[in-house]
Amino acid sequence: MTSRARMAEQTTETEGLYSGLVGILDATVRSLWLPNYLPAWCPTSENQLRAAEDRMLCCIKSKLSKQFVPIANGNQIWTLSLDSSGAAAGRHKMPVVLLHGFGGGVGLWAHNLDALSQQRPVYALDLLGFGQSSRPCFPVDAAKAEAQFVEAIEQWRAQLGLESMILLGHNLGGYLAASVKHIVLVEPWGFPERPDATDQNRPMPVWIKALGAMFSPFNPLAGLRLVGPLGPTLLQTLRPDFKKKFASMFVDNTVSEYIYHLNVQTPRYRVGSLRPDLPVTVVHGSRSSIDGHSAATVKELRPGSHVEIITIRGAGHYVYADQPDDFNQRVLEVCRQVD
User: Fold this and answer.
1) What is the largest distance, in Å, between two alpha-carbon atoms of the chain?
2) What is the rounded distance in angstroms from the CA atom of residue 84 to the CA atom of residue 81?
């Protein structure tokens, strides 16, 4: 074995040991300490989350209904349903189902719900373990956890009687049900983008820098939980871009408060496993910090299959909030093609 190969092997072993140690520490902190102290330590509750979501959705003009959809094992999926502005023809068109990304919730589609529901039914749901949906224990094994997500969505679809649908997901995990007629991947394989350089250059309190350094190896949501009452201030300071994305709708901290309550309550996308006949549209922002080659990679992994790549100019990772008008029009065009 060459010295370079030996060094690479040692590096891999070290990284594996580090990842394992971090996973054990994170799981131990969350399982042994957080459940007992979380309600009092973090200024949040189910009622506060519900109120924060209501504020996010207060600008929606379309007819909106909300419900918990029951699935197996006593779990429930929180669901928004929007009619197609009362148009009888629209009700018979294929519905669009919106799936948020990691750490998100239905309220983050506030820019898109009205526009997308003008011509067809639209559903938005909190994924199992997020938002107002049930938060069961997930397997430690990533593949088994993903399977639990997939099965939950399939059970949700069956409960609502949706025979076919257009699935649109931000940072979408695996969902391979035959009922999907077209899949729209928004910023696939993504991680949350960093704030703009102008935000990074702002003076930042020493205590926030210390907390960031302390919690960076852990689950990204664990830091918000562990800092307790400092969480809202931490989120607003580290991610001022969230407020900017919805500045046309809110002038206060509605968005950051909603995201906070989403994430302090007690994905890789394997595109190669999709059916070859399933059309795929990849939407990404021209200014996104995500690897720009991901869309091309999807196309390479599906030779002979329909893959359309759409670039939204001036948008970052949160395409649907950065350039909502352009995003909504592009999605509606995809929907018309499916019809």
Assistant:
1) 71
2) 10
